[in-house]
Amino acid sequence: MDLWLKIFVPIAFLAFTILVPVNWTNTTLERSNLTYSDLDKLSISNIPSGSHRFWTHLVMAYAFTFWTCYVLKKEYEIVAKMRLHFLASEKRRPDQFTVLVRNVPPDADESVSELVEHFFLVNHPNDYLTYQVVYNANQLSNLVNEKKKMKNWLDYYQIKYSRNKSRKPSLKTGFLGLLGTRVDAVDHYTSEIERLSRKISLERDDIVNNPKSIMPAAFVSFKTRWGAAVCAQTQQSRNPTMWLTEWAPEPRDIYWDNLAIPFVSLTLRRLVIAVAFFFLTFFFMVPIAFVQSLANIEGIEKAFPFLKPIIEMKVIKSFIQGFLPGIALKIFLIFLPSILMLMSKFEGFISLSGLERRSAARYYIFQFINVFLGSIITGTAFQQLDNFIHQSATEIPKTIGVSIPMKATFFITYIMVDGWAGVAGEILRLKPLLIYHLKIFFLVKTEKDKDEAMDPGTLGFNTGEPQIQLYFLLGLVYAVVSPILLPFIIVFFALAFVVYRHQVKKAESQPELSFKPQLCA
């Protein structure tokens, strides 16, 4: 966050000392036939065609660009030094010596285990240490999770019985506990746990003894980091689709469910998700256009004439034009991160960090197309539709370019609603707090459930990073076009610096999670 403050504080200072006086001195010049607001007096829209003062905006655009590139260069030099220092001082970890090998070719004479060991003994004789094949244990994992739920219910009814021994707890075994015969709850869950234990034992034996349960993938460990690095970053065979290697994620970072996905289906999955993301992004323009129409008082009055007396009230009119579009857009985007995370999981990424990175990248692309470009196009082009109809086609790009600064008002309110309020909500952790109370009210039965419900989760890289990048983009775009937006950007980054620094420090003070035994490898 301090990087963005280093960029935008000097930009804001120069903009308000140079650009704002220039714009105010041109308020009496002839305007085009576009519809302006008072805020446009502080934007580039106030500079008419042919004005000799336009050079100021042009020169400042180059100055801000060079300043941003210079600060980014210096910052990345610092980041690179910190990264090298971290790698040099880091303790030895298993993932530093381990490579994930996928798409092991089938062999009629050797099993996957024998083939992996023979291949690496021949091709990496000096560095190869050992291997662990990947088993398709997703069914076993489901049984284990089901047993955990049954054990949790058993603990709940045992605690309930210990508090009131005059009455043994009972339940119905039918649909949602509403139908079926009534049985003793403790005996029922005890028998269910025993049944699942036998089933888990049989499933485990079947996985170990069934060659079809072994996936064409393995974790291969090396004696040195150099050997692991060479293997992870080089092609292992003449066929580029066989013996594919990559760095193995940290054990706690592995998303085990996706290790059992055949490599052949990964390409098809990613193609399907790419098409789905394309339609999700561009069909979302419909609600974006609706949100932007909320700021158009005239359009609302034409569609709903009976609301005109209410809309013309000063307070209501200010709320509709100011905060309603930003609030409505934020509501539309509430479920988007969860949808993008599900899409990333379907693609087959094998690490939780990889899922978050892909989800963050798509979230930023979505916001860039819909929130930034969509708000500009639907918010300005639709408002100036009458001008488009009565002018030549060659003038349309010019009209759109002149109209873009007029969306500064919307982005200012969006920064306040999504940025300021969102950062304030981050320090309070409102969403995890709400989920915690819902779980306490509806789901928590034992102390174990309560401990799990109190887990606040991570900082949310897949949502926080795209938000920061979007505001960085808004600051650079509107620095010269409409500098009145810059103070709001600076306030956002200042708040974000304080809040996220606090959250990171708090996360560092928490004890590290212990390694848990995994089932899929």
Sum up the structure in keywords.
4-stranded antiparallel beta sheet, disordered C terminus, 21 helices, 2 domains, 521 residues
Structure notes:
There is one protein chain. The protein contains 21 helices and six strands. By secondary structure, the chain is α+β, with helices and mostly antiparallel strands. The chain has two domains: 2-89 and 264-509, no CATH class; 94-249, no CATH class. The strands form two sheets. It has a four-stranded antiparallel sheet. A two-stranded antiparallel sheet has the order 3-4. Keywords: Calcium, Ion channel, Ion transport, Membrane, Transmembrane, Transmembrane helix, Transport.
Uncertain runs are 25-35, 511-521
Subunit arrangement of the protein: single chain
Sheet having the most strands? 4 strands, antiparallel
- The average pLDDT score comes to 78
| Count of alpha/pi helices | 21
Binned strand content: 5-15%
Strand order of the largest sheet: 2-5-1-6
N-to-C SSE string, H for helix and E for strand? HHEHEHEEHEHEHHHHHHHHHHHHHHH
| Overall tally of structural domains | 2
User: Percent range for helical residues?
Assistant: 55-70%
Structure summarized in a few sentences:
The protein has 521 residues and is α+β, with helices and mostly antiparallel strands. The protein has 21 helices and six strands.
Please outline the helices and strands.
Layout: H1 2-24, H2 54-89, E1 98-102, H3 112-123, E2 128-135, H4 138-163, E3 170-172, E4 182-184, H5 185-209, E5 214-222, H6 225-232, E6 244-247, H7 263-283, H8 285-293, H9 297-303, H10 308-311, H11 314-322, H12 324-332, H13 336-347, H14 352-381, H15 385-389, H16 396-403, H17 408-428, H18 430-442, H19 447-453, H20 461-481, H21 486-509
Antiparallel strand pairs: 1-5, 1-6, 2-5, 3-4
Helix pairs in contact: 1-2, 1-20, 1-21, 2-20, 4-5, 7-13, 8-12, 8-14, 12-17, 13-14, 14-20, 17-20, 17-21
